[in-house]
Amino acid sequence: MQGIERMTVRNLLSEKGNDYFYIMHLSYERRERERLWNYAERRKIIGLEHHDVNDDWNNVRESVEISGIWRKQFEMFCNEMKVDNLVLVLNGWDSLLGIAEVIERHHQYDENLSSGSVERFFDHIRKVRWIRDYEYANRRRLPQPIEGFNNTLSKVKPNTHRWSILTNLNI
């Protein structure tokens, strides 16, 4: 592997043989970003949550009534993400918090994470290895905003605006 200091997202994708990656926000409607990032970074996880999906997604996906956008996000997070996929965790539209590699084949559901405990997090999680993680105060400014990224999770494919901005990013 090349020296991580001179690596780009494109190099990482090439080394892994991937032609797509995911971008993800960690926030409750733009709140608590720093706390959520610190929790995710320390525990090496990423997460997803919706108040109507209060069980393992694969147990409830046929019966739960949520919007098509949320349904797609749960399918991506729980079933489409594969081991070695890259996830860029963004702080809003303008900065990078970290780059993760998915390390486990299946997601986990943990109702205790959303139960109102002091360390509340998202109840659907994926374990990751941080390839690069920044302290919240030192998050990496993007060369240009990823405007229009309003969902929690999105898949980024070649020949898109997001692809061209993020794959050339030096990490």
Structure write-up:
The protein has 171 residues and is of the alpha+beta class. It has one domain: ph1033 like fold, CATH 3.10.590. Helix content is 25%, strand content 24%. The chain has five helices and eight strands, in the order H-E-H-E-H-H-E-E-E-E-E-E-H. The chain has helices at 9-16, 33-43, 57-60, 68-80, 161-166; strands at 21-25, 45-48, 86-91, 95-102, 108-109, 124-133, 140-141, 153-156. Strands 1, 2, 3, 4, 5, 6, 7 and 8 form an eight-stranded mixed sheet that branches. Strand 3 (86-91) and strand 4 (95-102) form a beta hairpin. The longest helix has 13 residues, at 68-80. It is globular and about 45 Å long. 30% of the residues are buried.
What distinguishing features does this structure have?
171 residues, alpha+beta, 5 helices, ph1033 like fold, globular, eight-stranded mixed β-sheet, 8 strands
